[in-house]
# Entry
Amino acid sequence: MIKITTCIIVEDQPPAQRLLQKYIADLGTLKLLGTFSDALEAMQFLQENHVELIFLDIHLPKLSGLNFLKTLETKPNVILTTAFSEYALESYEYSVVDYLLKPFSFERFVKAVLKVPKKEGSKTAQVPIGEPDVNRKKGEVFIKSGHEHVRLEIDSIFYIKSDADYTELYLEKTKYLTYDSLRYWADTLKPHSFIRVHKSYVVNLSKIKKISGNLIVLSNDAKIPLGRSYKDDFMDEVLN
# Structure
């Protein structure tokens, strides 16, 4: 029997709320009871409802996430989410389950949830990890896009674009949305001649047709901006 864990989200940024809601729905072993934009709303909800897990942002209006934790007499399991790594050490003083540094992938999210202590006598479902599976020998990648797993030839990817809380993989005639960070894709596909050229773009070097100033033109005529801080490393890679 699958053990379902009740949870809430306390997060004031709509993109982060949507990402967590998506990950929770995809995982299948969590039941989301509510999403709150500030800690005071969540506090009132907890007074009337039993919750086993909180996804809690540190930077919140009115009352910070850490100060919110101090007010709780009975603490559910807590997974902190934040874009600021400097709070990591302090957060563990509150016995949190894990600390997710934004942006985080679905795989990292699953690893955090699997750390939630099991109740005695309960069974937890085995959860498949949703990270793209890269087969370097065949040059293929399985990606999770929506509710589908799609196999792509890595060389068919022209470029990858970061857009708020997700990334888009662009092929010649189509694109796929994924929930892994641009940093993840840059690191994973680097051995396949992909390089980050802008804070929002990773490109396939084999698809470049020409470079015009601070603009990269690909063989499908897509135009990609070349960021100033990435230009030297990019030119070294292209010319050597």
